[in-house]
């Protein structure tokens, strides 16, 4: 038995989550996974109605779940930071979801905006540290509102926090070197030696305190993984290389802030926000992990049926992996791969189609059933 | 009379600077600009030979120059940060070069790695704040080297420092709305209302101290420029949009760290590091400004003649603008544009050609003379 706390959230959140939950329900029933769902009302509507961002009782309820599925949070009527810090980052931090896992994989049939690159070149995973750095909320003002105002914002990095993230990345690189974690591609790149590489992305030449710690920890952890290759990229160079030669990356490990930036770039490479999944993981399972599409609430298309549910659906693939159902997870991904590869299958407008959110969701459900 | 301090620096630095200086010499003689050149020996070689990064006497000498032309700094034999902080950032800070100006323009004839975009879509300028933020070097360690180690790095932002940068960006947007600052394109986009837009790129929803200051200052400065439109982009979304729809940007203003990242991405859009120019500006001219190609020392191709001198040459365009010779600057840019647009003209390997650094430099010189 596993209980999934479901936070549909704002904008297109409820629309894509509906499809993801329908698939989980199907799979749960067909495989006897024993999933049940606890809908949780959080987000802009609740905040605007009641002033509550994350009431203690709701957090308690979420803490008893085995995993959380989140749609999207954000609304133009709410000031920046209120929901992000009070809800999204609070859950990531309080539940020690210290890994933000973001696979960047171009599925056959999806177009990338980059010339000359295809699924063989775009298949990497970003392991973003998710509990430290500039995201801790440390900082303040002096002389606020005057011409002499100073505002500071501090990145806090602990050896323990960095090291657990690095170890996760090296373990993941090891698993990827053993087996294709993601479907759709040949093993050619593994034979070509592409697998088993962890790239640290940081800015050691400028952030000489924070990233000196990262750099030292990286070297020391790497020594425990002699079979895994390593390299280092400054964040600016990495952004360049992601566009020009994404094939040089396998597992990227990076800080919270840089991870935020390069995973959006990664989402572009793989065909856009409509297909980018993520998991906020507490690998030890002391607390529930949280799975969410990388996209936001997209208020501009909310209610139009244009939202692509694939990102949310791929996020439940990560959820099933985390809950120990890798076969169900693989079935979700291979169904998505088949739908995306099939020119006749429904696609939302972001992928050049004219289908609605629920038509795409249904196609994936049918592909899973037809397997 | 103007004296240009010339720091060829490391790797390909001296190779590209040679071409840039030759052009400045030609132009100076032909137009009576009265330029003279003070070669300055700084960089890895000096450091490895003598341990000196930036001796006081050299800094004095540089401070008396009207502008500085820098090739590149960096060598694998020098630990990260030593030259970057001790030389490059030191000059940027000590000489109050608080604007890092980085035009992102795709010249006709240059290929961008992005599908479906051409010179009409890729023509923006990034105004990167250059004296504050995470680049100030504030931070430290506690319990260094132990499992309890904590490393912090602090972004410092002052109202005065941010405001002067914002004002520069708004003034620049005004000038771009009046006239085409860069050559090669029609005025169609201006007619289409694309000009006169300043986009703030930050992360207000997470960096709720530092970027709250930026956000408030942005709104207040914008009120002084009623003819200029404004919008706001989170840094992660901006990276996505730069690849998917670069045409939505005119002038981007951003922090030092985010500017570092998005200008490398910008360089990719415009055809790579080989063509990306920059100016570190002290707009008041209290101190010398410094002009440098965005690329680094590229030790892998140093000495092979493969380095593209266009980035360094476009940087002297920015230098000539700054020294008050806009006609000479325009001639440099239009000569570069003609060489790049001419399929028969020499190109370095990064642009798909087989010519050497000096062949390209000569072609630009001849194009200027032939004007
Ligand atoms: C909404 C925001 C706080 C969040 C982040 O910066 O982590 C988002 O951009 C993401 O990447 O999940
Ligand atoms: C070399 C490094 C310190 C520098 C920076 O980060 O500013 C470089 O990347 C740049 O963009 O000029």
From TrEMBL, chains A, B:
Concerning InterPro entries, the annotation shows: ICDH/IPMDH (IPR050501), IsoCit/isopropylmalate_DH_CS (IPR019818), IsoPropMal-DH-like_dom (IPR024084)
Q: Which residues form the Isopropylmalate dehydrogenase-like domain?
A: 3-364
Which top-level enzyme class is recorded in the Swiss-Prot or TrEMBL entry?
A: oxidoreductase
- What EC number is given for this enzyme? 1.1.1.85
Needed cofactors, names only, are: Mg(2+); Mn(2+)
Query: Which protein is depicted?
Result: 3-isopropylmalate dehydrogenase
Picking any one GO molecular function of the record gives: NAD binding
């Amino acid at each position: 038995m596993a209980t999934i706390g479901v936070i549909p959230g704002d904008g297109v959140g409820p629309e894509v989550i509906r499809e993801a939950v329908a698939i989980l329900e199907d799979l749960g029933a067909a495989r006897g996974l024993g999933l049940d769902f606890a809908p949780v009302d959080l987000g802009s509507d609740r905040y605007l109605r009641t002033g509550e961002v994350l009431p203690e009782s709701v957090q308690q309820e979420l803490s008893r779940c085995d995993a959380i599925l989140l749609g999207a949070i954000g609304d133009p009527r709410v000031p920046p930071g209120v929901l992000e810090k009070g809800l999204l980052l609070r859950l990531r931090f309080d539940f020690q979801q210290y890994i933000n896992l973001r696979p960047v994989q171009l599925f056959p049939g999806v177009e990338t905006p980059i010339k000359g690159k295809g699924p063989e070149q775009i298949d990497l995973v970003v392991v973003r540290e998710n509990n430290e750095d500039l995201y801790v909320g440390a900082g303040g003002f002096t002389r606020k509102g005057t011409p002499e105002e100073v505002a500071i914002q501090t990145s806090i990095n602990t050896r323990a926090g960095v090291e657990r993230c690095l170890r996760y990345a090296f373990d993941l690189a090891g698993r990827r070197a053993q087996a294709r974690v993601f479907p759709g591609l040949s093993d050619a790149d593994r034979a070509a030696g592409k697998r088993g590489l962890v790239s640290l992305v940081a800015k050691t030449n400028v952030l000489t305190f924070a990233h000196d710690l990262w750099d030292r920890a990286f070297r020391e952890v790497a020594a425990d993984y002699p079979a895994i290759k390593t390299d280092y990229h400054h964040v600016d160079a990495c952004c360049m290389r992601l566009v020009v030669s994404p094939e040089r990356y396998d597992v990227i490990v990076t800080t919270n802030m840089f991870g935020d930036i390069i995973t959006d770039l990664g989402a572009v490479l793989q065909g856009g926000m409509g297909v980018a999944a993520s998991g906020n993981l507490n690998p030890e399972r002391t607390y529930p992990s949280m799975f969410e599409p990388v996209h936001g609430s997209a208020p501009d298309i909310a209610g139009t049926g244009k939202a692509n549910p694939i990102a949310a659906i791929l996020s439940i693939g990560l959820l099933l992996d985390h809950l120990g159902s890798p076969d169900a997870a693989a079935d979700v991904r291979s169904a998505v791969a088949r739908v995306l590869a099939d020119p006749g299958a429904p696609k939302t407008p972001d992928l050049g189609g004219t289908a609605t959110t629920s038509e795409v969701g249904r196609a994936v459900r049918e592909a899973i059933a037809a397997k």
